[in-house]
C-alpha cells in the first residue's frame, strides 16, 4: 500500500514498446502509451496506484520485480512477452518477492504456434488474462 491506496505494478516485457505498430492484426492498434493511460485512469477510478514498467531486458524486469518487494506494491500484472516461454529468472523473482501476480497476454497464446502454448508463469499466477478476438478471457481465481 502507498498513501492508503492499493498499489499495482504492470510490467510489460520485450517488444511491447512496439504495440500499435508491430503486427497490429495480432496485437491491435493501441500503443503502449494508450494502454498505460487507460490503466492509470482506471486506477484513479478505483482509488489505486497503477505504475507501469517496460523493458526488453530480462535483468531489468527481474530488478523491478525485486524493487516491488519494498516499494509498497500489492500486486503485479505481468505481460512477459517472449519471456513467457523462456524465463526461469523472472519466474524465480516473482516467487522470491511473494507478491501475488496475474499473467497477461495481448493475444491468445494458446491459439498461436505450438511453442507459444507453454508458460513458465501459468502455474503460479493468481489468474491468466488472454485476449480472444477483441474480447478478454480470465482464467483463474482472484482472491
Automatic annotation (TrEMBL):
SUPFAM superfamilies per UniProt: Type II 3-dehydroquinate dehydratase
Q: Hey, which pathway is this one from?
A: Aromatic compound metabolism; 3,4-dihydroxybenzoate biosynthesis; 3,4-dihydroxybenzoate from 3-dehydroquinate: step 1/2
Provide an example Pfam family for this protein: DHquinase_II
Q: Which enzyme class, named as a word?
A: lyase
The chemistry this enzyme catalyses reads: 3-dehydroquinate = 3-dehydroshikimate + H2O
Q: Which GO terms describe its molecular function?
A: 3-dehydroquinate dehydratase activity
InterPro entries annotated for this entry? DHquinase_II, DHquinase_II_CS, DHquinase_II_sf
Protein's UniProt keywords contain Lyase: yes
Q: Which residues constitute the catalytic centre?
A: 27, 105
| Oligomeric and partner information | Homododecamer. Adopts a ring-like structure, composed of an arrangement of two hexameric rings stacked on top of one another.
Q: What does this protein do?
A: Is involved in the catabolism of quinate. Allows the utilization of quinate as carbon source via the beta-ketoadipate pathway.
**Family according to the record:** Belongs to the type-II 3-dehydroquinase family.
In Swiss-Prot or TrEMBL terms, this protein is called Catabolic 3-dehydroquinase
Classification from the root reads:
Eukaryota, Fungi, Dikarya, Ascomycota, Pezizomycotina
Amino acid at each position: 500500500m502507498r498513501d492508503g491506496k492499493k498499489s499495482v505494478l504492470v510490467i510489460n516485457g520485450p517488444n511491447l514498446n512496439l504495440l500499435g505498430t508491430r503486427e497490429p492484426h495480432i496485437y491491435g492498434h493501441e500503443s503502449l502509451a494508450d494502454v498505460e493511460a487507460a490503466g492509470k485512469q482506471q486506477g484513479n477510478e478505483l482509488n489505486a496506484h497503477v505504475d507501469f514498467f517496460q523493458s526488453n531486458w530480462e535483468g531489468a524486469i527481474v530488478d523491478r520485480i525485486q524493487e516491488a518487494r519494498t516499494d509498497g506494491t500489492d500486486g503485479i500484472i505481468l505481460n512477459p512477452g517472449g519471456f513467457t516461454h523462456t524465463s526461469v529468472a523472472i519466474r524465480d523473482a516473482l516467487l522470491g518477492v511473494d507478491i501475488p501476480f496475474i499473467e497477461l497476454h495481448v493475444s491468445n497464446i494458446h491459439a498461436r504456434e505450438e511453442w507459444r502454448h507453454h508458460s513458465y508463469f501459468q502455474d503460479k499466477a493468481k489468474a491468466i488474462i488472454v485476449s480472444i478476438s477483441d474480447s478478454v478471457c480470465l482464467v483463474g481465481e482472484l482472491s
